[in-house]
Amino acid sequence: MIVDIHCHVLDDIDDGPKTLVEALSLCRMLQTRGIDKVIATPHFIGDYDSKVTPKSVKEKIDILNKEMKKQHIKLEIYSGMEVFASNDTVDRLEKGEILTLNNSRYVLIEFSFENIPKYMSELLFSMQLKGYVPIIAHPERYNIRYRKSGIIKKAVENGALLQVNSGSIMGVHGSEVRDEATRLLKSGMVHLVATDAHGDRRPIYSVMEIQKKLTEICGTENMKKFLYINPQRVFEDKDVEQTSVVKKSFSIFSFFKK
């Protein structure tokens, strides 16, 4: 059973599909790629966009699920959001303005790609104090400042989770992002891999392709946790399993390269 915990599958609500026809096309594609369940995660950016509310998201999901049933698309959609971090994120969560992933304690959250918010560590800590588990979306795409500052590493040490995009692993966003995704996957800090699909603008790789690539990078056990075990655990609101660090291989040739 494959659960995609990060996907922009709903129409006319964010930068995903523009129409219901496009949304259905994406759903059909996800099904053929081997995905069984999708948590719809439209961008929540607070007062900057009034389209994304719990009510509108659930209504869109109901329409999409009904239409898929008519068209014999065997995919199930569940509710969530990708929250753009702000000072009032915790307040909005407590007020019910933000949807967690399938009504669990898990919250998919993203930060500015370029600049590290001064409140980042405090926000993540505050979320956890309230019983939420933050999942930081696609950290491999963030500016190198995040890595140099050590703030992502510290966040994970303090209980946050990391989700890497499958497209990043395959080089969709370029070699730098691919290399950072690989480094993170090997570091033992990543817990989940998801599509972050927005439509047909970028390739959506099959589960088998991603499984093969992940196994090459970090071994079978880690691959199973990234792709199968932990997404299902998030979906069921259970604790995720920790992944392991991939040790560097050593050879006599690598010694002489030093």
Automatic annotation (TrEMBL):
Catalytic activity: O-phospho-L-tyrosyl-[protein] + H2O = L-tyrosyl-[protein] + phosphate
GO molecular-function term, one example from the UniProt record: protein tyrosine phosphatase activity
SUPFAM superfamilies in alphabetical order: PHP domain-like (SSF89550)
EC number of the protein: 3.1.3.48
Annotated keywords: Hydrolase, Protein phosphatase
Coiled coil spans: none
Recorded family membership: Belongs to the metallo-dependent hydrolases superfamily. CpsB/CapC family.
Protein name as it appears in the record: protein-tyrosine-phosphatase
Organism: Acetivibrio thermocellus AD2
